[in-house]
Design goal:
- This protein has 360 residues and is mainly alpha-helical.
- It has one domain (4-357).
- The chain has helices spanning 4-7, 10-16, 26-38, 42-51, 60-90, 102-108, 131-140, 150-159, 192-197, 211-223, 232-245, 249-262, 265-279, 285-292, 298-311, 320-338, 341-357, and strands spanning 99-101, 121-125, 144-145, 166-167, 174-178, 200-201, 207-208.
- A seven-stranded mixed beta sheet has the order 3-4-5-2-1-7-6.
- A hairpin with a 5-residue loop joins strand 6 (200-201) and strand 7 (207-208).
- Helix 4 (42-51) crosses helix 5 and helix 10 crosses helix 12 (249-262).
- The protein is globular.
């Protein structure tokens, strides 16, 4: 099922088999590091080399480059942990669940996908009826709104799944406070009570979603709410979690039924299909059989198989008109899933006018 386009990409080949780094030539290193930097995966290459014990065998220049990425990764994760500390301090005394999302959840659970990962913001979730209280607490403790114009403030509050980003002027780490994992205008909108009720205690008094729900959040973030293009890091994280959580057969038994319960079957189908096709993820045959019943029709599947592999990495695959069609096709798809056509047209028109006026 491997895709010939992605098999030619040096970054994907090395991510799948890090031992290849031992025998790369100068030209291959230049290509690999360029791809990795654009994809925000250079730190991951360094961590993989360290993990399999080949780091000191690599060219000295590469070792020095990797040291820089190691420092950046460790520094960013320390800042996220400290911001988590500050968030918990601001919300002390509150009795509702504060759930870590995305990179913060991966860091809290010390997952494989955090190795060498750069984290630039902190995502948390509270129930919608508590979000105003949380916002007030943050503003009282020095955070400020990063979005100031009235239109964007209104759009976030009425149609998005989160508050406008908040930034503390002393630390410059953005925190995104969510009340859902998908915009309220999305064609698929889950019952958030089911996700919050299943959340489990984590470090520092925080919570995280269950392992199955952590994966499904990543899946819908990429395949339902995201543009897909240049999302190799997201796909790699899903591959890592499938491999790590999949050591427990109960994870696989619960995955598809939970996706059915939450309405995430189509997104999960794409995640499993392209993790297997591009990253060679080891997915049980019974799971693929169970998710196949939620596949799109043949024409859409052919289109997705053409578009996704060619643009999943920033410089990968198709070029010229083919790449342009793939990128824009996936861009239109993401917006089509995110909000109704009339609302989308109105929103994009407003943003365009604001940019012309210099207000955005």
């Amino acid at each position: 099922m491997a895709n010939p386009i992605t098999e030619r990409n040096i970054l994907i080949r090395v991510l799948k088999n890090p031992n290849l780094m031992e025998n790369l030539g100068v030209g291959e290193w230049n290509e690999l590091l360029r791809e990795a930097k654009i994809s925000n995966l250079a730190g991951r290459l360094s961590a993989d080399a360290e993990h399999i014990g080949i780091k000191e065998k690599l060219p000295l220049k590469v070792q020095n480059i990797f040291k820089s990425y190691d420092y950046s990764s460790r520094s960013s994760q320390r800042m996220i942990r400290w911001e988590m500390n500050r968030v918990k301090r601001a919300l002390v005394g509150e009795d509702y669940k504060v759930i870590l999302l995305k990179g913060a959840a991966y860091i809290a659970k010390e997952l494989k996908c955090t190795r060498g990962r750069l984290s630039v913001d902190l995502d948390i979730l509270v129930e919608k009826n508590k979000i105003d209280f949380a916002e007030d607490k943050f503003l009282r403790h020095g955070w400020e709104h990063h979005v100031e114009n009235d239109y964007d403030q209104k759009f976030y509050r009425e149609y998005s799944h989160e508050l406008p980003p908040l930034v503390h002027p002393d630390r410059q780490i953005s925190i995104d406070v969510h009340h859902s994992i998908l915009p309220v205008t999305s064609r698929v909108y889950p019952d958030m009570t089911k996700l919050v009720d299943a959340a489990v205690p984590s470090v520092g008094g925080f919570y995280t979603f269950s392992n199955v729900d952590i994966v499904l959040h990543s899946v819908v973030h990429l395949w339902q709410d995201g543009e897909v293009r240049s999302s190799l890091r997201n796909l790699l994280e899903q591959h890592d979690m499938f491999e790590e959580f999949g050591k427990d057969q109960k994870f696989w038994d619960a995955l598809v039924p939970r996706a059915v319960e939450l309405g995430f079957t189509r997104a999960l189908y794409y995640a499993l299909r392209y993790c297997k096709m591009i990253m060679g993820t080891n997915i049980p045959a019974r799971v693929m059989k169970n998710i196949d019943q939620y596949a799109p029709n043949g024409l859409i599947r052919i289109l997705m198989d053409w578009m996704v592999p060619g643009v999943i990495s920033p410089t990968l695959g198709s070029t010229g008109l083919s790449r342009w069609l793939s990128m824009n096709g996936l861009y239109i798809r993401s917006h089509w899933l995110r909000m109704p056509p009339f609302m989308l047209a109105k929103h994009l028109s407003t943003k365009m006018i604001m940019r012309i006026k210099g207000e955005a």
